Amino acid sequence: MEDKQQWPLYEVFVRARGGLDHKHVGSLHAADARMALDHARDLYTRRLEGVSIWVVPSKAIAASDPTETDSFFEPAKDKIYRHPTFYEIPDEVKTL
Amino acid sequence: MSASIHNVDAQALFRYVLRLGDLSLVLGQRLGEWVGHSPALEEDLGLANIALDLIGQARLLLTYAGEVEGRGRDEDKLAFLREQGAYFNPILAEQPNGDFGHTIVRQVLIDAFQLELYERLTGSLDERLASIAAKSVKEVRYHLRYSAGWLVRLGDGTPESRARVQTALDLLWPYTVELFAEDDLDRMMAEGGIAPRLPEVQSAWSARIEAILTEATLRRPADRPHTWHGKRGQHSEHLGYILAEMQYLQRTYPDARW
Predict the structure, then answer these.
(1) What is the arithmetic mean of pLDDT over B64-79?
(2) Are the CB atoms for B38 and B100 separated by under 8 Å?
(3) How much is the pTM?
């Protein structure tokens, strides 16, 4: 149900610098997307934290259900072959 | 000190720079009154951010004014130890906050003025003023984005919000006359290449405001002749209260630091 007494919630994502991805930094209340961007700028980038901001209405985010954690994530546990840990890494490769 | 001020009288330049600095200082102090009282935590921070930008501009401008004057007064002396009659801000800046919509209307009117003014001051022959303007114009561009966004939201909002901002606009509009009332000092600065011509600033301001008011579905009040002399030190009753609060500490405990 929509609460008329309070502005809707937005999730804020900030890109720290060019080349990096946008990271979730928090949330805020705003009446519309433009206001959400203004608020995000004032709340989350006042100490030079970023060069780009995304705001997303929180209600637009579909989240996994915490009670389903077992069925969602447990089945991946015993499938170690999905991790590429069986390869020989050449010495010349510094970062992988 | 910049070499370009030789073509105008130092005392005149001092007064002109104070006009700019006092506008930012007084408006910044006014906005500071909202801290802890805004309609939402997010707006508290938004208004405080703008206030801090304005105080920052005032510091640069008052510091420069003190150097131009050459009598050893720094930003603090000028901010905290000047009498009301030696403040040269247009009186729109000192008008009370009223409700949030009222504050927003005042902010839009001044933000648009500062934006047009600073954009042109970046080309000033006075290099110091040009560099202060170049820094400030970025801040002011955001201030107007914030305030105009709110004015559109409120004007094109509910009947209640619309009525409130229209009332504020009707009340504050007459004070905008002073922003563009060109006196000898303004003309001297324009002729010396220090500052833009105010009629030019006015027409750009007017077009900008027109667009914002149209989007906000607000009625532009009629222009009527008014004579205000805040820029010459004749203020409304409100400035005295602002200064009393702002200057209290320095006057009670001279040179106190923290």
Answers:
(1) 97
(2) yes
(3) 0.89
CB pair distance less than 8 Å for B49 and A46 = yes
- B160 inside 8 A of chain A by CB: no
Confidence at B4, pLDDT banded by 50, 70, 90: very low
Average pLDDT over residues B17-35: 98
Q: Is the pLDDT of residue A76 over 90?
A: no
Q: Using CA atoms, how far apart are residues B61 and B57, in angstroms rounded to an integer?
A: 6
- Who among A7, A31, A38 is closest to B146 (CB)? A38
HEC per residue, B54-112: HHHHHHHHHHHHHHHHCCCCCHHHHHHCCCHHHCCCCHHHHCCCCCHHHHHHHHHHHHH
All residues of chain B having their beta carbon less than 8 Å from the beta carbon of residue A7 are 40
From chain A, pick out residues whose CB is under 8 angstroms from the CB of B49. 42, 46
Yes or no: say if B53 and B2 are a contact pair by the CB < 8 Å rule.
no
Per the document, the length of chain A is 96
Q: Are A28 and B42 a contacting pair at CB < 8 A?
A: yes
- Cα dihedral sign for B125, B128, B134, B137? negative
Which residues of chain B does A39 touch, with a Cβ-Cβ cutoff of 8 Å? 42, 45-46
Q: Which of B201, B198, B203 is nearest to B185 (CA)?
A: B198
Residue A91, pLDDT score:
85
CA–CA distance, B13 with B15 (Å, rounded to integer) = 5
Q: What ranges do the domains of chain B cover?
A: 8-219+233-252
Residue with tokens 């902010």: B107
Asked if B42's CB is within 8 angstroms of A43's CB, the reply is yes
Calculate the average pLDDT of chain A: 90
Q: How far apart are CA A73 and CA A71, in angstroms?
A: 6
| Chain A residue numbers touching B144 (CB-CB < 8 A) | none
Identify the DSSP state of B230.
Answer: G
Alpha carbon of A42: minimum distance to chain B alpha carbons (Å): 6
CATH architecture of B8-219+233-252: Up-down Bundle (1.20)
